[in-house]
Write a structure and sequence with these properties.
heterodimer; A: MetI-like fold; 16 helices; B: mainly alpha; MetI-like fold; 2 domains; 0% strand; globular
Chain lengths: 284, 290
């Protein structure tokens, strides 16, 4: 019964995993990875000799930091806000609307942003009619990264609240009652009861998020990237796609991907160790 | 006492107002795109509406519907969604069931195998080469087979199957049911709510797939809707629709762009409010324990 599933994982997950050996080869498609020449660490040396890669690595790291600081925290704030709402009907409608963008594809989201913010789009029409200057955020180096993070916040923040809302229902209401008796206001209750109540959930999601620190949303960035912002917007994944799939430099890009995966795994393991050292449960 | 009541009232209203604004921010852009897609030429040129145009005009839609390229990509997307979701469900439920039952030996190993792929994967290029080697290039199956199981969905589904009590399964076995019989006659009927959730998750994922199509499909007759949308809006190739033979007035590119966005997301946006309950259940199912 498990055969189809097992075959799937073996062929499409574990064969590629073994396929990373081509990172140590000079892979030629006609020879396959059994007969291609071994080159040791040459491909990895090339990574450190390519100045472009350093730039793309920095872009990836910066975008990722923005995302962790902003896109990771917004759902926590919204979840706490939703938790404070007492009208069930209002809460339900707000949730419905907030979750909606999650179900749109990245092409649709990128399309909507593009159409709204293009030079003669709605936003600029409005700005001009209010006597303000039109803005250009689609092909502007200065705010390209900010726009990427804004898109992620718009698309995923609402959906990201679900897991926190589930954790919030686990906080015993007596705690709030007791705090109220002691004279704590809403904000104090949030700080002393709500936040500690979801701390372990936040930590687990944070550790998992660290593991994908170098995956900054390939689908999204690939769609939004254009020539005028490639200096600040090209990331490791888009580079791997461009050099590997488009240019056919398979061995070199596999090496880049492997290095990226190793960094992610190291971060998860380290963060998990730290979490356990501080007495939390951790992911595993 | 009175001041604290006043301040909590203020806090409550401010919170509600802020949330309402955030919720509106989530839908306004979508409403605006729908409005633009049905706006008349003069409304678009004046650009002075946000929510709804004064004059409606469905030319962009009739223009798009008259082209073969729209229907061929719609057909591809429907095929991918239908076949893909079926394959996803079949393979995921079977694997999850095996992993959920104590009596199957080797379930621990399978579980570890699946979990490990969530931590570390071969990456884009080796996967691409394997898909190529298995002969899926330039076939719609390339959007189905390489993404047959989501490890995360499999693990959540296993958790659900584990909650089905062993005694039910034992009694069916005593009555002469074999493993497949138990699975189809007992386990699946008991899991309809969770199956509905995963059907929806997978179906949305399949409808929205575009990157696999960019990687594996070269032939434009195989394009799904999402790729057509990317060409029309982001690459600005709105003449993809042009049909020379008809004497129709060609709508503004921006109208056809907006209309394409609407068409590529319509089924999801229309069905979503009805299905929301299931979506939410599915994600929290077994996600938070104790």
């Amino acid at each position: 019964m498990a055969l189809p599933g097992l075959l799937y994982f073996l062929i499409y997950k574990y064969v590629p995993l073994m396929g990373v050996v081509i990172a140590f080869q000079k892979y030629k498609p006609v020879q396959g990875f059994l007969r291609s020449d071994w080159v040791g660490l040459d491909n990895f040396r090339r990574i450190f000799d390519t100045p472009e890669i350093e730039k793309y690595f920095i872009n990836t790291a910066i975008i990722s930091c923005y995302q962790i600081v902003f896109a990771f925290t917004v759902p926590i704030v919204i979840a706490i806000m939703l938790n404070e709402i007492r009208s069930a009907a209002f809460k339900k409608i707000a949730q419905t609307l907030l979750y909606l963008p999650h179900f749109l594809s990245w092409v649709v989201v990128a399309g909507i942003f593009y159409l709204l913010f293009q030079s003669d789009g709605q936003i600029n029409h409005l700005l001009v009619s209010w006597g303000l200057h039109p803005i250009n955020i689609l092909s502007n180096k200065d705010n390209f990264r900010a726009m990427l993070v804004l898109q992620v916040i718009w698309k995923e923040s609402g959906w990201g609240t679900i897991i926190y809302l589930a954790a919030l229902t686990g906080i015993p209401p007596e705690l709030y009652e007791a705090a109220k008796m002691d004279g704590a206001g809403r904000l104090r209750q949030i700080y002393h009861i709500t936040l500690p109540g979801i701390r372990s959930t936040i930590l687990i999601l944070f550790i998992l998020r660290l593991g994908s620190v170098l995956d900054v949303g390939f689908e999204q960035i690939y769609l939004m990237l254009n020539a005028s912002v490639s200096d600040v917007g090209e990331v490791l994944d888009t580079y791997v796609y461009r050099m590997g799939v488009v240019n056919g430099d398979f061995s070199f890009t596999t090496a880049v991907g492997l290095l990226k995966g190793l960094v992610g795994m190291m971060l998860i393991v380290t963060a998990n160790r730290l979490a356990r050292a501080f007495g939390e449960r951790g992911v595993y | 006492m009175n001041t604290s009541k006043k301040s909590s009232y203020f806090f409550y209203s401010a919170n509600m107002l802020l949330l309402a604004m955030l919720a509106l921010l989530c839908v306004l852009p979508i409403v605006n795109v729908v409005a633009m897609s049905v706006a008349s030429l003069q409304d678009i040129v004046s650009g002075k509406f946000i929510l709804w145009p004064k004059h409606l005009d469905f030319k962009a839609y009739s223009y798009i519907f008259n082209t073969g390229v729209f229907f061929s990509s719609l057909k591809n997307t429907v095929w991918i969604t239908a076949v893909g979701t079926f394959v996803n469900l079949a393979v995921t439920t079977l694997l999850a069931y095996v992993c959920s039952r104590q009596r199957f030996s080797g379930r621990r190993m399978i579980l570890f195998m699946v979990l490990f792929t969530m931590l570390f994967s071969g990456g884009m290029i080796p996967t691409y080469l394997v898909v190529k080697a298995t002969g899926l290039m330039n076939s719609l199956w390339a959007l189905v087979v390489p993404s047959a199981v989501s490890a995360f969905n499999m693990l959540v589904m296993r958790e659900f199957f584990e909650s089905i009590h062993e005694s039910i399964i034992e009694s069916a076995t005593i009555d002469g049911c074999n493993d497949l019989g138990v699975f189809f006659r007992i386990v699946l009927p008991l899991s309809v709510p969770s199956l509905a959730t995963f059907t929806l998750f997978y179906a949305v994922g399949n409808w929205n797939q575009y990157f696999a199509a960019i990687l594996y499909l070269n032939d434009s007759s195989l394009w799904p809707l999402q790729i057509l949308l990317r060409q029309v809006v982001l690459i600005g190739q709105s003449d993809i629709y042009s049909h020379l033979d008809s004497g129709e007035v060609i709508p503004l590119p921006v109208s056809t762009q907006m209309a394409t966005v609407v068409l590529a997301s319509a089924p999801i946006v229309v069905l979503y409010p009805f299905l929301q309950r299931y979506f939410v259940q599915g994600l929290t199912l077994g996600a938070v324990k104790g």
